[in-house]
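Entry 14. Two folds queued back to back today. First construct below, sequence then structure tokens.
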Amino acid sequence: MTTALPDIERALRLLHLSGVRDTLETRVLQAQGTQQPFLETFALILQDELDRRHSRLIERRYQQSGLEEKLTLTEFDWSFNPRLPRQACFQLHTLKFIAEGSNALIIGKPGTGKSHVAKAIAYQAVLQGYKVQYLETDDFFNRYVLSPPAQRETRLRAILDGDLLVLDDLFLSRTIPDDAGALLQMLIHQRYKLRRSVVVTSNRVVQDWGAYLGDNTMSTTILDRLMHHCHLLEFDGRSYRLKEAAETLARKTKES
């Protein structure tokens, strides 16, 4: 290596070009060994920097999304409940609905994979560079009502600005905080006006939403905007969680 390399690395550090700095020595050796033209080597070095920046952007978007799992549809066990709307799930996974400003409502029995599908769609959106906000809805409602006003405003701005909002397990609890219904209505209404997509999963059929909100008019308003441009998926079948619990119990019984 040339004696100028430490000076180059120092300059790269000052310029915050970590992608170039991390691969520079390898690229120089590669060029020397193959007599690679300068412009070809330079293009590879620039691509290293672009790749590093893209990776950091994706990781930052993931950390900001609220997701705690990097799930995919390929690892989902479609054979367990073969009547699930597999084609519709993969259609959502293309993310065309985000570009269109459409929504998705995934309704069905507990444990049938609604959250897995929603998280996989959200993670795919992160990988494609979209701003995503994933919320476990009941937990979000409870935390929000206890937050100071300034924190609420910052949180709402992030939720409304995102390209995709996922409200997972809506109405998992039979009761929600007093202000949660108005908050839900505002979120759906504002994102509807902005044509920004929402994915909602719920164990509760839409006919019962008015009872959980305590206001049939509010329920109608929310559903009107949510379902105007919407993909409706119904999940039916056996529970993956009960299957896994039974397998665990059988394994422990066999080992004891």
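Second construct, same run, same settings:
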Amino acid sequence: MFQIAHLRPGETLLVHGGSSGIGTMAIQLAKAVGAKVAVTAGSPEKLAACRELGADILINYREQDFVEELRETTAGHGADVILDVIGAKYLDRNLDALAVSGRLVVIGMQGGIQAELNLGKLMAKRAAIAATGLRARPLEEKAAIVASVREHVWPLIESGAVKPVIDRLLPIESAPDAHRLMETSTHVGKILLQL
């Protein structure tokens, strides 16, 4: 959101999967810098959890069209930054939801890996698309990310402005149960395994 998409105060961020571990942290960090936050989630309970974390615009993707809801709630502006865990399935709709000069950051592929890109939409909005992940990065880049988190995020956690959201803590022997729980997609935040 910050290193790649350069989210700034006053901008609107759309977080797909707002109740996920990444989503719950994204909401809090965006609010900490003064951004307006829109989220998608699949149940009223998950949306309520996002609201408690500071989300301003709540969109139930099972019942609402996120593009239309975003247009309506931002007076047609759209999202300046979109953090997307879905991938291919949402590519075209994300372009529709982006504001002019918007930035789309793809961090997951839950909705597939291949999609057709409408370059006309991308160019008309003067938008940018980036995709990123941690696993394939060289150690130096991972170290720089850790240093940035230590400098910018850790003080927010220490002050209590940002809090990790942990759905539950399970013993390592319950790893299969944790995977089943993740598959139900009923949790909010992270599921942690403890040694």
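Quick look at the second one. The chain has a mean pLDDT of 96. The first strand starts at residue 12 and ends at 16.
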